[in-house]
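**User:** Everyone, produce a chain:

**Assistant:**
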Amino acid sequence: MAIVMISSLFQSGRKELAEALAKKTNWPVLSREELVDRAREQGIKIGRLEVAMIKTPNKSEKLAREKELYLAFLTSILCEKAREGSFIYYGRGGHLLLPGVSHRLRVGLSTPQEVRVDRTAQALGLSPDKAVSYLNEIDEDFDKWIRFIHRVDSRDPKNFDALFNLENIGLNNAAEILSNMAQMPEFMPTAVSQRMVDNHYLSAQSRLRLSLDERTSAADLQIHADNGVVTVTYPPHQEQFRGHIPAVLADLKGCREIQCTMAETNILWIQERFDPTSENYKQIIQLSQRWGAAVELMRLIPPGEGEDATLANTDSDRAFSRRTCGRPYDGGVEDEEPETIYNDGGLYRTKEDLLGLGRFGGLHTVCGGYSSILERVQGNGQYAMVVIGDMFLSKGQSARTRQTRELALNIRDRLKAPVITADEMKSQLLFGKKQAVTMLVFFAVIVCIYYTVFSHQPVLFNFLSGSLHQNYVWLSPLVLFCFIPLIAYLWGTVTGLALKIINID
């Protein structure tokens, strides 16, 4: 029993290959188009997701929840099919679904550009040049879709088990190869992979229930299922949903236990601009995962910047504020009309990535100097830590450093919480290459010191209590006074870094 998942941007190639393989194996075929139609029947707004992704509007938590609902629906259907036996699925990025299931065969297709151009020109009545332009736009939109839904590069070869160039191999031969590959031991189901399918199915069913129930549809939840145990984690600012989650999942088939937990704490991250590919973001995620914390974002828009921009104001205190930023309301993602594109400083991309990781803890945008930040954080919540990232970017380096320190001191006084800069976080809380080198060097110095001490015992005793000590009584206390703190510092540094490796702060 195997799952063959055929993916390509051009629809005809994947469809023909799936049909050719089905003739050889007699396995049922399932297409993305079929699943999308069924999703629309369930009220999932696929069209709005696609339009929002292409136009890059002001996306909200609600849009991210709809994406998770869409993925849960696809996963649920595919898992049902996998439980019944072997099947073939073809679509845009089906190879990225059911992660961790070893008996899925992920197939990628590459269709000759000339063939695509000819077919597109004939189907749409376009000239070759216009067909090329049309296909380039379509490919770009599909790439955006894959990144939006799965957060990966659609063309990354490491996500495929087999890649076929249909310019060099016929469909029947490709189908024959896939039929043989599907019988290989590497793609045979095991107890572990079958359990992974069950876990995906239970997790997807839980997501569907919680997303479609009006009591919990507005919650940002991280859901994980393992051997019948469903763990639902919610951010601290959404504790009001805690009582409804067990009730919604009460009679879920296959669920023998429900664990409903809140993210242990919040980390407040303050910056002027955010980037989910930055080093700061990677460090914040590493720290939040170690602490089981949600990450709350706060963006400062400096005075004089962005007054003419257009931002959407949602119904949340964590959203952009017209009162604070002086920006008009554009109706958000509910509108089907074209929406204004604006520069939000990378907030949505970062928020969407945090939502996908189950680490999103809220969002604030404030305008003005850092006094605006102090007003906003006053009494806003309990934080395990406040991280100040890239701030005061229009200033010189010395002014940036000074103002960042002033901001850190003021926030520490207001919140009574630890405040740290991004640079300090890397050096003090996280373990990286620099810390590894430091630990090894310090450990080597300690070994050398101890080796020297134990291999020169007569000289040492003479220095401490012998003739040398009697001639220079003051010297040995002075050396010990310096030596003991040095050893303590070296050993404390080594043990502290070693504890970081095992995530103990």
Q: What stands out?
A: The longest strand covers residues 293-301.
